[in-house]
Amino acid sequence: MKNETQQIPAAENPEKFIGLKLGEPYKDAAGVKAVVVAGEYVFGQVPFARGMKALFILNQKLGYDCPGCAWPDPDGERSPIAEYCENGAKAIAEEATTKSLKPQFFVENAVADLAKLNDFHIGKEGRVAQPMYLPEGGTHYQPITWEGAFEKIASHLNKLESPNEAVFYTSGRTSNEAAYVYQLFTKEYGTNNLPDCSNMCHESTSFALAQTLGIGKGSVKLHDFYEAEVIVILGQNPGTNHPRMLTALQKGKANGAKIISVNPLHETGLLGFNNPQKVKGVLGVGSKLTDIFLQVKINGDLALVKAINRLLLEEEEAHPGTVFDHDFIRDNTAGYLDFISEVKKHDLDFLVDACGVSLDEIKEAANLLKHKSKIIVCWAMGITQHKNAVATINEMVNLLLIKGSIGKPGAGTCPTRGHSNVQGDRTVGIFDKPHEALLDQIKKVYGFEPPREHGYDVVKSIYAMHEGKAKVFFAMGGNFLSATPDTSFTAEALRKCNLTVHVSTKLNRSHLVHGKEALILPCLGRTDLDIHDGLTQFVSCENSTGVVQMSKGVLKPVSTDLLSEPVIVCRMAKATLGSRSKIDWDKFEKNYDHIRDDIEKVVNGFEDYNKRVRERGGFYLPNGCRERKWDTKNSKANFAVSELVVEKLADDELMMMTIRSHDQFNTTIYGLDDRYRGVYNERRVVFMNPADILRQGFEIGEVIDLYNHHDGRERVACGFIIVSYDIPERCVATYYPETNVLVPISCVADKSNQPSSKSIPVKLRRSSLFEEPIAFKVL
After folding, report:
1. Backbone phi, then psi, for 307, in 5-degree steps?
2. 223-249 residue pLDDT tens
3. CATH number of 4-25+654-778
4. Out of 3.90.1640.10, 3.30.230.10, 3.40.50.1820, 3.40.228.10, which CATH number does the structure's domain 203-415 have?
5. Angle in degrees, 0-180, between the axes of helices 389-402 and 203-212, rounded to the nearest 10
6. DSSP classification of residue 774
7. If you average pLDDT over residues 32-54, what whole number do you get?
8. Which CATH architecture has domain 95-201+421-606?
9. In contact, 527 and 92? CB cutoff 8 Å
10. What percent of the chain has pLDDT over 70?
11. pTM, whole model, 2 decimals?
């Protein structure tokens, strides 16, 4: 293939510096500083009374669910002060703002001009107040009625040659009720093209756990953290991404648990925690969390876990019956001998070199584990976004299986989900590869034959749009362009669509990189009061531990021209399907209880849904792993044989992983500070080991471009400031979405097809835009 330079239009990735300031990374997460920052953020955007009303019932029983992460709420008593974290408060402020975008805003601001703003400033413009339409060839969005918007969507969908020419994306903030009617509409329309954000965050988890344990979800409950003997945290930064997890870790530590943390970076939340609801936390006396920190190379986790398993096997062979739980292995598992044979293949020195952790440190971790059985293994996207992600998760499951550490108190799997209802969306049917049992039930209940062929996931959707096979793109929430890999390629794909539609609360970059025609459909958020037909409605969400609970907004919406997501779907379905539909969409729209009644008929585990969801704290969905019932083909928990392939870098290459700043949740940029890492007022930075800076002939503060070559294309992220940081040699870290442009669309995890954004080979060169290093302020 011809090598051609990949240009980066400003609409996808504006390249502007703001003014870097550097300080010392924090040693402890949260504390009074987090409270102060959260308060300043909330009440800087939301009137005091409105802000207090929103925060008072956030994550409370019978309140509303935080639109941020999916960390579970306590089953028992919840904090009356604040059952939320700093970033949860920021998420509420973003949604509860009274600033709104009226038609005049769009008259005064062309799409091309808005695209020149960075993601932070785009998000600060406010809530979209009415449906907006961008005609073909237009330069400005203009108002459109809801009826006109639905007619536009129906016209495009109904003139497609095949339903498979449409793509229906789902964000993890979508409620169970909206997700259910959404997937029901797409199936009656005739397609399983249902990509969702899980394709980019935990698809590797879902695939691996379903194959080995029979359910693509974690097995632990929150209380298990209080009973655990060892908690292993891999590829996760809880201080920023799941801050309320720190409270659970603190309680576990108080009860005697030991914590092993595995990460390329010394993340603040892994080191210590100042609980702002405890006197010591207020006084700045933090709890030390991590007992053993293993600083792996980027994607060194598989080699590390294999090394631990090898050491545990050696101990078991030296002292039979003292390390492995052979009763559990005999009664519950299959594939043990094949696993043992694989473990013995790898030389320890090879594994040590591959993971970048010393043998003594690995032995320390193995010694901590060898006589413990109440073990929880937690992981996030630092594990799932690699080519070998499924293999790594399989190996972690192998560790739990040899120890009998699944299906007992204080033990099990804990994938930490990054969005508040991404797990619930999958439960109620948002999946490009729907299970036959679900399709059979849909046919039985509604009387139509749903499509059986698999649809497009995120990566396949982007290819399909790029190749002209998909012509309509509909997004139920999210910021698709900024979340996906290969930004320029994805932008090209979206621009080839005849119509792009986004159901959104606020303006984002995906509205500015659009199809020939485009629609923005403004929806109610989690905080908003949802009243229509004289009824106050509520929705429900599922957290990471499988608890389904109600979410009922309390704030007056900023506009009278907003619709809820379930209503938007129902009206789109009526406009598109008309008299050929066999579903009573009017019934669903008028009362969400009817949606829940139908979920109960179609999806296992939702018996008495409307009754149980109204109970304080909600209810748990079934989880076979907790009862040692394995929903696999052989009804066993399966050991997996995972091959280890170590990627070799060229002499001038480095391995890049994308990360979030502390002032960020997914693609939403709350601010420009990453105080836990000591970086302020700037996002276009690259974290490098001091030895690599010297070896490559650069200096701190120098501006470089990052680039790579893949599939015959050069991909470039221009203008990044070098920051010296404690990261393994030959490894660098950058914020996303700024460097998603470097993640090739074809670089995905084996078996799950999830983008491998955490292990991208890159090269560095001096930026052609800046001849001298950037002057930065040291705090």
Report:
1. -65, -40
2. 999 999 999 999 998 888 888 888 899
3. 2.40.40.20
4. 3.40.228.10
5. 40
6. P
7. 86
8. 3-Layer(aba) Sandwich (3.40)
9. yes
10. 95
11. 0.95
